[in-house]
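The methods section describes the discrete structure representation at length, but only in general terms. The central task, working out the structure tokens from the amino acid sequence alone, is never made concrete. Nothing conveys this as quickly as seeing an actual entry. For illustration, here is how one protein appears when written out as sequence plus structure tokens:
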Amino acid sequence: MRCFTIEWYKEMQVYGFLAFPDSKEEWDEMIRYYKEERIDYKKNAKEDLESRPQKGNVTF
């Protein structure tokens, strides 16, 4: 069983930050959902990015 470590936590932070759709179809589906729900996905993405700490490059 793998133990949860600081290094693993840091790695997961990077993976969570760099989450992208796996395909163009997935991307289109996500955009379609946002439009149907009247969610401004550009505003959400900008706010999410701005809310993250700005401490330079991520290193392990």
Notes: The mean pLDDT is 78. The first helix runs from residue 6 to 17. The helical segments are 6-17, 24-36, 41-51. The chain has three helices and no strands.
